[in-house]
Amino acid sequence: MAVSGISLLITLGIYVAIAVVVFVAFTILRDTKLTRRFFAPKTYTPGIEHPPKIRGGLGAWVPQVIRMSEAEVIRCAGIDAALYIKILRMGLEMFLIISFLVLAIILPINCTGSEVNSLMSDPNNGNSNLAENPLAWFAQPSPPPPPGTPAAPEEKSGDDPASNIVTVPDFYDTDIPPAPPGMTWWKYKDDVPPLPTPEEALNNASYARYGWRWDASYQEIKYEFTDLDKTTMSNISSRSPSLWAHAVVTWVVSLIMYFWLWKYNKEALRLRIFYLLNQPPGAMSHTVLVQDIPAIAYGTIPHRADGTLLKLIPKSIKDKAFQQTAMLTKRVKSGVKSAGSAAVGTTGVTKLAGDSAEADADNAAAAQALSSSLVKIDATTGRWEMRDEWAAAVNEIDSTGTVAAMVEQEFRRIYGDTLSHVHMCHKTDKLDPLVAEYERTHQAATDLLDNYISLKRRGKEMKPKKVTVIGAKMGEWGKTKYGLKPKKVEALEFYCDRLTELRRLVLAEQEAARSPDNLYPSAFVTFKRRVSQVVASRTMMSEDLSTWSVQPAPGAEELVWGNLGWRSWERTGRVIAMWALFWVMAAFFMIPVTAVQGIISANSFLDFLNDIPIAGAMITGILPGLALKIFLAIVPIILAIMNKFAGAVSVAQIDLGVVYEFFIFQVITVFLGSFIAGTFANQLDQFINDPGSIITIFGTSAPQTAIFFLTYLLLAALPQASLNLLRLVPLIIFWVKSKFLAGTERAKARLWQDQKLTYGTLIPNDTIAILLGMTFCVVCPIIAPVAVIYFAHNYVVWKYQHVYVYKGAYQSGGMAWTRVFDQCMTGLVCFHLMMVALLGIKEMVVPSILCAILWLFDVTVWVTVHKRFYRPHECLSLISAADIDNREAAALGAATEFSAGKSAASVDEEVDRRYISPSFKFDEPAHEQVLSEAARMQAVLAGGEDEKLFAEPSQELEYNDDIESGRVTASRVDESSPALAGEPAPAGSASAQELQLEVPDREKSATSPIAKA
């Protein structure tokens, strides 16, 4: 069903109304007492950078957000947020210029064309409609009417999906003898009367010498056009000189894109280098992640096989098949030598029985001649063997005693005294569930204490609460203490007992996890200088690429610790499996996408809605795009799971992988799937009957499909962006929980604090908008201003969200830009492909060739940008790293110390805190704190008194929403009062004490004793 102009206007009106309602609701709710923290959590969360106060009345936040500087965005949200805002600004600037260009030049040309009117009045390019043919009555089913009494042809049922195609019936008898030589003839079927002559049928003597017969291949095409199609390239006839303007504007738009992409490549690189230069001295700026460490059995093929049915294979066979791992069974030098000898024996030169001593002497002489102080040739085999990293590592372990010492020795041999420390990674799959249960139990105990305190302060009765426990789920301890059946016990007593038992289990499992048998083949290696970190992260440590893989260390808080145990062979296999699943999923999603296009194109069953404008707008303008959005909603979640499965070691790697893959997925489904299905759905029957007509169908119907993408982009530009601002579903959940479920201030604070944001969905949606706007800006000029609306609206919405609401789930320092540029270039290639195809179909050879030349420019720009900008994105240059090292050392007068004046001991302490799995961190004081307060509370519940426990804070923090600076401060509070909300400020922060949120002695109990990395 083609989208009409009135349907588009109604759709636009509905979307604008939704946007206005959401804007007003947001403006009111962000100043309402209940929801102000939900809509601006970073204003009220202690221990972080607070955004500037928004002043003014209704809508005053919009101009203040727009005027907010890049520095303010970086201060409040980080480099990734600043880069994302620049991406939106780039799209806005580009499409503002493109809109002016295409609306001023292309739109008038398209609107003044006549092709749509011509096709609507005569869709068969000058051939009379079959229904208007004076011989049309011959096309009726038998028995035919008597000659001379033509009857109007019977109309096909509207329920027939092929009603847009009228095909001539079969009139001729094919079972006839051959015609005389040099002639052809035909015979009508018995139930078909002979055709009258042209002179008789047309009643015109000038046709006296004409003859005719039915064209069996004839098909009448009935196009579906609306007045909106007159704004597209469909309205330009073939070989029209006006098409030269389309080619010229294509060139101008392309040059604009090249210029803007180059400009923002420089901006992205500036932000990236700013991020790298401002990395504080410490773990991340001086540490690399080393994977595939040799001489560790974990992750090898035999180790994995032992965990599967392959463990049934006899050990002797597995040892023979996997000699490298067999070396690990006996870490003695003789064993290494034996393994090395066996390896050489399998590939060496076998001596023949008749070899002479003279030949041996010649071989030895040749080997000696080729040998040097650096390279030795084996005199016996005459071969030089590459270094065996596994054998060398096993040998080194024999000398040093531990794997960690071996890794340290390898790096110290390369980097000398600049090496600071090595931290091995451990398998914690048994420890992690215990830690997770401890955290849940600790939080439940803390919430219960807060609830009791809240009841007491409000003068309400405190009754001991009970919980139902099932001892069978808690091992032998639970079975012994509570039995096998469900049992109701006093909640606080249970939490204390369970925390005590879990502490014992956690500490015991921590010791077990630190054993050599649980070592992962990964380690974090920290250097004293940035230069060493840069060199280590960007150079090849070994020719054997299956060992010693080195990369910059991700932030400790974003690590996926469980993925550090996978070796290169397993990561490769998982990546292959992930991409296979990706293409299967893309093919599967093509089914609903094609179905949506087929349903909205086969409009015969919707004809009755044409007289209801709003219904028509819903069917043609809103539902198709909405259905597509719904289908795509779950895809980023699936892709994130797939990336984690593929071996990504950090949240940043997972999310940036989603940025890359979700764009490809949308190109396949949203762009190609919808475009192909929408182009051919109306003429599917004709395409099946006459595949050769594909070019004609594409040339006429492809520009019409641009209208669908216009409505799709309009949906994302107005209602979707507005609802992103309101966050309707999280708002409802927040309201319900804060009203009925969150009984304490700390529980309520958890509902609005720490809102996390990733870019796996955001960036692909923006780049697909760039692709759609760019590809169709000349074909359908009105899509360009819709793209302007999209980027302008999202610019305001997401700038506010980044500054006032969300915290980044990670900080990659702008690494997403390289993917953004590649996706924009993909849009340019699609744009040029579209114009080459359409101009070629319109029989404009030279303009089509001119547009094809732009592909050479695409390749040139793409390659040039990669060479010019991509390497600086990867890491600091050696010059910059050395300069920072020297300046930091000189500032403290200690050039031999670790940068920023830290000693090696302080570095080790920092790395110990950062690059150790959170499962190994246990806060004993916090554990004792909650047990102590629980014991005091139990005494109170038993009838005792404890004034200190329930005393109001001496100087309790109250949120002052009218503070001019927009910051939240608090004085010190009574050391015995419990924490009610918030979290402690970062250690070492200059304003840590000032920003504490009612956190006295119990400040550590505000979060789990098992600290997060």
TrEMBL record:
The chain crosses the membrane at residues 6-29, 92-109, 243-262, 576-600, 612-641, 662-681, 693-718, 768-792, 845-865. Keywords: Membrane, Transmembrane, Transmembrane helix, Transport. Residues 8-118 form the CSC1/OSCA1-like N-terminal transmembrane domain. Residues 407-563 form the CSC1/OSCA1-like cytosolic domain. Pfam families: PHM7_cyt, RSN1_7TM, RSN1_TM. Residues 574-838 form the CSC1/OSCA1-like 7TM region domain. Residues 976-992 have a biased composition (Low complexity). Residues 141-150 have a biased composition (Pro residues). InterPro entries: Csc1-like (IPR045122), CSC1/OSCA1-like_7TM (IPR003864), CSC1/OSCA1-like_cyt (IPR027815), CSC1/OSCA1-like_N (IPR032880). GO terms for molecular function: calcium-activated cation channel activity. It is found in: Membrane. GO terms for cellular component: plasma membrane. Residues 131-164, 961-1013 are annotated as: Disordered. It is a multi-pass membrane protein. Belongs to the CSC1 (TC 1.A.17) family. This is ERD4-related membrane isoform B.
